[in-house]
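Researcher: Good morning. I'm working through a list of sequences from a screen, and I'd like to move beyond sequence-only analysis. For each chain I'm collecting a predicted structure so we can compare shapes side by side. This is the next one on the list. No need for commentary yet; just the structure.
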Amino acid sequence: MNEYKDRKKGGEGVGETSKKRFHIDWILVVTLALISAFGLIMVYSASFVRGYELPDGNYAYFFERQLMWLAVSTVLFLFLMFFPYRHFRKLTPLLILGSVILLLLVITPLGINVNGAQRWIGAGAFRIQPSEFVKLAVIIYLAYVYSKKQAYINDLFKGLLPPLFVVGFLFGLIMLQPDLGTATSIVAVAGLIVFCSGARLLHLGWIGGLGAIAIVYYARSAEYRMNRIIGFRDPFEHSFADGYQLIQSYIAIAHGGVTGAGLGQSVQKLFYLPEAHTDFILAIVSEELGLLGILFVFACLSVIIMRGVVIGARCRDAFGSLLAFGIVFQMAIQILFNAGAVSGLLPITGIPFPLLSYGGSSLMVTFMSLGILANISRKTEKERSERLGSEAEYEEAEQEVAAASSNVTPLRPVRQFTR
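Model: Good morning. Structure tokens for this chain:
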């Protein structure tokens, strides 16, 4: 046993131990770096023409701002990757309180109105979108609350409903901006976290039905929302109104084909396709890099999502597991909503494409979420390595004891000496 310990402390296994000391999830980190660099290139390609139209004529304006946000986001990612995620349990009340305050500030004169929607706060060129940060706060809150309610999660009124009233209140505040797409994504993620927490399917059905009724009501409560739905169903009937943006997206996708027109060679970004560098950047990727570019994007994001599912499944802590699943669900829903809008499969919601669209708030929250996911992975793998190491040491000790016992000459039976 002592020889085994000396061997572990000495030359054998030292390289492997030092390599795994920090338990960094390199699959997640490298994939995130690849898709982030690709997104930065595409933001530049999709926005430099629009940059020329700015008063100072800075073609790299959007690229420089996205690069700045990417640097800040990277620092936040590294911090949260080493910040123990379990500390968020104590911070949950502050996160929810901060979310409410930020959402209330948006609907005050401090809020910034852009294209008829008041979703930002800030001053000058610096502005943030609070609803993006609320997404992460809600995930942390629900993961914390439902991890504590596991003993009575099947109790509808005591275990399941109370946290959802908080989500409903935040949903109402976001709808005052208004932002149905973000509010719907938060409700959808809440439902998936409830499902993963082990709630009864009957309860989920009732709650899901009520949530669907609320979303349909809000969708029908404003004419412009109904026009978006009508334009999504038959854009060519409204080609110069609500169907215009989707038709331009179709043209970009068709122009790209399999291999694309070439990086920087998009025609639709020349003021034909609105929001080419934000909500519809995926159409520009399709036009310039074709189906191959789209496959690269979805391959990277699939790796991140599948890695998140594995992390959530391996985590033995209920809070960490629900938190990992919530982060993965939020990212997957954003991808689904945005890609569905760009391709005409879903109504246009104004939700950015994760890690690709221009926008500081979305990029920061995505990096922060993945930083927490990387920390859950670190903690889980560290505990798993320690557990496997303890088992290996125990088995090694048993083998050494067995080997030592086999070298000892057994005593002769007593009856051989008694004649």
